[in-house]
Amino acid sequence: MSRSIGFLNDQRLFRVGDEILAETPFVHFLMGFRAHFDEVVLISRVFEGLPEDVHGYPLPKDGVRVVELPPYPRIVDLYKPPFKYRAKIEEALRVTLPTLDALWLNFGHPISLQALGMAKTQPELRFFAVQRGAYERDAKLRIGGPPGLGFIAGKVMQRNMKKFAKMARKAGVPCFAYGAELVHRLEHWSLNVHSFIDSLLTKEDLGSVQSVDKGLETDLIFVGRLTPEKGLDILLESLSEARMPDGRTPLLRVVGSGPEEQKLKALTSELNLEESVIFD
Questions:
Q1: Entry pTM
Q2: Residue 116, by phi and psi: left (phi above 0), alpha (psi -120 to 50) or beta?
Q3: How many beta carbons lie within 10 A of that of residue 26, not counting itself?
């Protein structure tokens, strides 16, 4: 008997020809579940074409199914009248949930709220919720526009998370969180919480490293997506005032890409750090 696990984690997917690519390398972690399930099901919004600022990570052809949600631009668009996405999303969930054995819910996300609200109709489906960051803060930073809009986005996400916590507690849904701070937040809501950390590297990846490129010397290294919530702008501003014991500015190597890349490169120039920051 085959087993399927679904993921509602709000990662954008992009169709390029007959290939579908994920927005971030986090998809590699999700693909690791293929070792334990016969099928990994990504329930995600799918866009046509790959934006210039997105690298794209191809999905494997085998053991992966994509359930396409309507390509809403941002979470905020789910709340705008006439709520044109809601019915299509609800239909996709209604058809897909009975085909799954387990479902990853992104803690507090409006679509995960919809799915959790259907828990009573799917008694055999095992739900579990995951919080990978301070989502209220992320909503405030990602929204853009006037400061007041960010404040509202943060409050809406805070309300969603409280509602999600209440529903998860009532349904007995186990929750997973990154690190002690997030675990403490969820325990405050009397939830069954487990701490975990994911990795995109395997033992095989680490074992394949034969030597280190001597040309990669650096004092500091940042590895991650270039998005507002990562705080790389704060690191750059601090770097402009930091000095090594020999008086030079520390050398920072930035490994990653994302929507903030050009903005961060401009800030690097503004702070006169072109010789001290390398974007790989």
A1: 0.83
A2: alpha
A3: 16
